[in-house]
Amino acid sequence: MRRSSLQKADDRELIAGAAKGDREAFGALYERYVFKVFRHVYYLTSNLHTAEDLTAQTFLKALEAIHRYEMRGVPFLAWLLRIAYNLTVNHKKVRDNGTAPLPEAVEIQGILYSPEASCEAKADGERVWDGVRTLRGDQRQVIVMRFVDGLSYSDIAKVLGKSIGAVRVIQYRALSALRRRLEDDLGHYYAKSRAG
Amino acid sequence: MEFLREGESLEACLQRYPEYRERLTPLLEVALALQGHQPEVAPSLYFLVELKSKLTREKHEGR
């Protein structure tokens, strides 16, 4: 397939091509999903280099296994995220119950801010996502898949091998835990949003 | 939660379910904060190019 047609091809065509050994087709899938996989892993690990490493491993494993991917099952992104998730939970820092420290700095829209930066929006974001990073593994995973990856409950359930009801319960518990931990900060946030 | 994702305000979401207002408010506040403050992160260009090259190059090398 030529590059222009690769870019226009839907996932089904690209997956079929990749499964037959067309690496350009796999490359097109990579370009389509690499940022999403990277963001997903980053939000679980809080470390840019670890996220790059696990993203690379995810795509290399996907390349090996793509002939086993079934289009009638989970969406391709969810399939990739399942691979990423399995790799991430096996990673040492996350295996220690997902309590990896915050990164030294957080990159926001291409700009690297130091922890001391006074940007108020960034401070709010850090407080909230700092709370996410302290959640237990499955809760953090569900929050990331809902709020970062934008997956449906159904797709999250498929990735995690749980029922939709179980995913909703995990999300409820995660939000409740976050609420307890962030009560003061969110009171400030909510007051501000109502005023503005 | 879906209405929040579609851009509805917190108050508008709560008005849809007045009977659950007390229970929903704290959870939707958290959801709104999560939704509104996602640090944007991206891998390095070097990483992206290297990995793409590796994934597409291997076709000539076999598995």
Explain what the structure shows.
The complex is a heterodimer of chains A (196) and B (63). Chain A is mainly alpha-helical and 196 residues long. Chain A has a single domain, classed as RNA polymerase sigma factor, region 2, helix turn helix motif (Rna Polymerase Sigma Factor, Chain: A). Helix content of chain A is 71%, strand content 3%. Chain A is built from ten helices and two strands; from the N terminus they run ααααααββαααα. Chain A has helices at residues 3-8, 11-19, 23-45, 48-65, 76-90, 92-95, 120-133, 137-147, 153-160, 164-195, and strands spanning 106-108, 111-113. Chain A has a two-stranded antiparallel ribbon with strand order 1-2. The termini of chain A are far apart. Chain B is mainly α and 63 residues long. Chain B has one domain (2-60). Chain B is 63% helix and 0% strand. Chain B has four helices and no strands. Chain B has helices at residues 2-5, 10-16, 21-36, 45-57. The longest helix of chain B has 16 residues, at 21-36. The radius of gyration of chain B is 22 Å and the shape is rod-shaped. Chain B starts with a helix and ends in a 6-residue tail after the last helix.
Concise overview:
The complex is a heterodimer of chains A (196) and B (63). Chain A is mostly helical. Helix content of chain A is 71%, strand content 3%.
Number of helices of chain B: 4
Rg of Cα set of chain B: 22 Å
* SS class of chain A: mainly alpha
- Tell me the CATH architecture of chain A: Orthogonal Bundle
Query: Biggest chain pair contact, residues each?
Result: A-B, 51 and 33 residues
**SSE string of chain B, helices as H and strands as E:** HHHH
Morphology of chain B:
rod-shaped
What percent of residues of chain A adopt helix (DSSP H or I)?
Answer: over 70%
Q: What does the largest sheet of chain B look like?
A: none
List keywords for this structure.
heterodimer, A: 196 residues, mainly alpha, Rna Polymerase Sigma Factor, Chain: A, two-stranded antiparallel sheet, 10 helices, 2 strands, 71% helix, B: 63 residues, 4 helices, rod-shaped
